[in-house]
Structures are given as structure tokens and as C-alpha cells.
Amino acid sequence: MKRGTRVTALAAATVLGGAGTAVAAAPPGHSEYTVTGTTHIAKPDADLDLGPGKLALDLGRGSFAGTITLPPVEVTRSVPGVGRVGGTVTFGPGHAEGSVTGGFSGSAAWPVALSDVRVNGVPYDVGAECGTTEPVTTEWTSDDFAVGKGGRLESTYAIGAFENCGSATPLINGFVPGDGNTLTLDLTPA
User: Which of 85, 157, 161, 176 has the smallest C-beta neighbourhood within 10 Å, fewest atoms?
Assistant: First the structure.
């Protein structure tokens, strides 16, 4: 399975997106940020609090690359015809990169995995490889982010199909993937 999801990538791209504008004239260096935020998964209408996590950003002349890590998030929702479904969602670690020449533009990609799935309180084995078929990818631009102060990053993204989730794969794919998901990340210097 290609572990990755175009989602909480979201965070990496978001974080890095803002960094670009402020570093266009800066010499190469390394910056770290504490990351907190939220994501709204549209199809199940679920809001998840993210973080605190960490963004490590390497700045070059006119470019950036970095890694974002976020702790796993617990989520429980009602699924019509099934009952209460819960589990652990893990976003990343994600990778982001981009250009800071003539403004900021960048993208991030990260895996999204599901584990510890429960249906009406009963554990449901989805295996160790349950996750999105393709990484979640986000595209970012930002005028708000400054290397020394951080900032807020926002994005809308799509979540693709899941695989390797055993017999729960069709349920997950009917309940989670889709467009219109949102992500907001706040970065503060670590």
C-alpha cells in the first residue's frame, strides 16, 4: 500500500506554505514550529483537533522543505445502518516543499492511517496497513506566515480511497473519502 493521504499532508503543506514568503531573501537555515489546529472531514461531518505536533523546516535560497508530525487523533461517529464507529486516525509524518521565489507556493503530502477501529464498542481488526491508497496532497499559498513569528495556514483538500482495511474497506470508503475537507494550522516558533 502506498501509505499516504491527502489529509491532517495538509498540515505540512500549510505550515510550509507561509514560510516561503518570509524567507525569500533569508539565508539557508533551519526552523522548528509547534503545530496545533483542526481539520473538518466533510463526508462524516467530523471535526478533529490536531496537535500539538512539530514542523521542522529547512530553508534554502528561494526554496523550503520540511517534515510535519502530529499525534494520532481519536474519532467516533454514528454511521446510519451500522451504529457508533470509532478509531484512531494518524496523519503523517508529512513532507512539504516549495518555492519562495516571487511569493510562496508549495505542496505537502502525507499518509493517513486508521487503527483501533471499534464498531458499537467492539474492536474490529483492520490490520496494520489500513490507510489511504495515495498520499493526501495539499497545495498552499500564503501571505501571512513569517519565519520568526509563525502564522496561520488554511487549506481545502480531498481524501482518496482507503485500502488494506480488511472487510471494513468498503465501509470506510463509503464513509470517509471525498472533497471539501478543510484544515487550519497555527504555527508558533518552538
Answer: 161
What grid cell was written down for 51? 496537535
Is residue 19 over pLDDT 60? no
Who wins on pLDDT, 21 or 147? Answer: 147
Cell of 11: 498540515
Measured CA to CA, the distance from residue 128 to residue 72 in angstroms comes to 14
The answer to whether 12 and 169 have CB atoms below 8 angstroms apart is no
Q: pLDDT tens digits for 95-145?
A: 988 775 554 567 889 899 999 999 999 998 999 999 999 999 877 767 777
Question: Nearest-CA neighbor of 65 among 122, 9, 118, 12?
Answer: 12
Residue type, 100: V
Asked if 103 contacts 21 with a C-beta cutoff of 8 angstroms, the reply is yes
Q: Which of 84, 85, 79, 40 is nearest to 179 (CA)?
A: 40
Give residue 171's pLDDT: 86
Residue 140, strand partner residues: 106
